[in-house]
Specification:
The chain is mostly helical and 196 residues long. The protein has one domain. Helix content is 78%, strand content 0%. It has six helices and no strands. It is globular and about 60 Å long.
Length: 196
Amino acid sequence: MSAAVHNGYSGQPISGWLKRYYFTRFAFSAAWVAVAFSVAKSTPMLAAIMLVGYPGWDAIANFADAQRSGGFGRNKAQLLNVVASTITAIAVAVALGYGMNSVLVVFGIWAGFAGILQFATAIRRWATTGAQWAMILSGAQSTLAGFLFVRMASGTEPIGITTVAPYAAFGALYFLVAAIWLTVSDARKGTLRTAG
C-alpha cells in the first residue's frame, strides 16, 4: 500500500503529516536537550518545569498525531500514550517534592510504558508508511532506558535533568531519521511516478 494513504481526518496523505510531525518532535526534543545541558542544569526551577513539560509535550504530540491519523478509534496505543503521559506529567510534579531519585523512577516507568506503545504504533503503521523502523528502534530504546532509569534511581550517583537529557537526545535523533527517511522515500516515489 502506498505511503500516500489518506489519514481520514484532513484528506491529506499521512506521510505528509508524519514528516511535519517527526520534524516538529525532533526540533522540540533537540531544543529541550540543548537547554537541559546548558541553562537548566544550574537553574532548578527551570529544570523542574522542563521535567514536567517533557511528558506533557508527549501527551499533546500524541493527541495531535492520533487526531490527524484517523482518531483514537484507530489509534488506541496513542490514546493510552496520551493518558500515560498526562498522568506522568502530574506524577513528576509531585515527585519533585521528594527529590530527583523519585522523579527518575517516574520517568523510568513512563519511558518503559511509552516505548512499548510507540513500538505498537510503529508496527501498526508498518504496512502503510515508511520510516517505521526508526520508530520501532526508538520504542525499544525507550523501554530499555526505562529499566535503566529505575535502576539508576536506587544508586548513589547524583541525579539531575542531565540524567534524563540523553534519553531525549536519542528520541530526537530517531525522529529526525524518520522524517528524513520519509522525505527521501516520497521524493523517490515522485521521481518514479514522473518517469513512469
